[in-house]
Backbone:
């Protein structure tokens, strides 16, 4: 039995200047009695931890803080947050404030409309507030990924996602897996639903990603996901063979 309907999982590293406003925005748009917020502090070296401990008790919604003594990465942070979550559904979003919490109800409505056992509702940032170089990189990466993985997702890098906790726990865990949740959900035979969402400019701090972990590392991960999907297809074929008439 789930204690909450929704667990909002927020991986955060050195986002002290963004967290206070973001957490209050989330608390304003979610039902306070059926939602929890889990912030995973990923080895922050700023004032994030003290801010979170002071703020969590003042919010009108349950808020817990998980601490990584050293940085483990976004995927590990999301994974640990989901393991600790008590909600039926998981919502993830980035802690930099660029994902708009006002879009959370829209994702929940889309989730309620699907009948699939496994599904992922993901945001589509049609008007991104990023640099032209970053938008170009994402555009190329999304086209290559869609061609390789056929994941029916125009913006898999959007941090705003919703999926059942039971679905997430069936996904293979690896570094950077958060970028491939739609493809991995499809691997389970699940449904992927894209919802148009707002995207805001980063007001404080800087991205924790570099050209390396967005580029070459992403290509390696993508090929690994493609292999997983191919192996799953072979397993389905094998399971349908050899039945006695």
Residues:
């Amino acid at each position: 039995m789930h204690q909450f309907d929704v667990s909002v999982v927020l991986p955060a590293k050195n986002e002290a200047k963004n967290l206070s406003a973001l957490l209050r925005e989330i608390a304003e748009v979610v039902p306070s009695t059926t939602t929890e917020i889990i912030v995973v502090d990923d080895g922050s070296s700023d004032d994030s931890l003290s801010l979170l401990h002071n703020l969590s008790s003042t919010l009108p919604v349950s808020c817990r803080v998980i601490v990584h003594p050293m940085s483990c990465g976004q995927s590990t942070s999301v994974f640990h947050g989901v393991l600790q979550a008590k909600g039926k559904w998981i919502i993830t979003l980035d802690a930099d404030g660029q994902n708009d919490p006002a879009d959370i109800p829209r994702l929940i409505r889309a989730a309620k409309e699907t009948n699939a056992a496994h599904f992922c509702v993901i945001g589509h940032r049609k008007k991104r507030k990023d640099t032209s170089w970053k938008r170009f990189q994402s555009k190329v990466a999304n086209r290559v990924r869609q061609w390789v993985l056929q994941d029916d997702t125009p913006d898999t890098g959007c941090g705003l996602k919703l999926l059942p906790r039971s679905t997430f726990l069936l996904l293979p865990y690896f570094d950077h897996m958060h970028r491939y949740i739609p493809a991995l959900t499809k691997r389970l035979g699940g449904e992927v639903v894209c919802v148009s969402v707002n995207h805001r400019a980063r007001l404080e701090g800087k991205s924790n990603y570099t050209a390396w972990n967005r580029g070459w590392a992403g290509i390696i991960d993508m090929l690994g996901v493609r292999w997983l999907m191919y192996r799953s297809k072979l397993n389905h074929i094998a399971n349908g063979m050899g039945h006695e008439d």
Remarks:
- Residues 216-239 form the longest helix (24 residues).
- The mean pLDDT is 84.
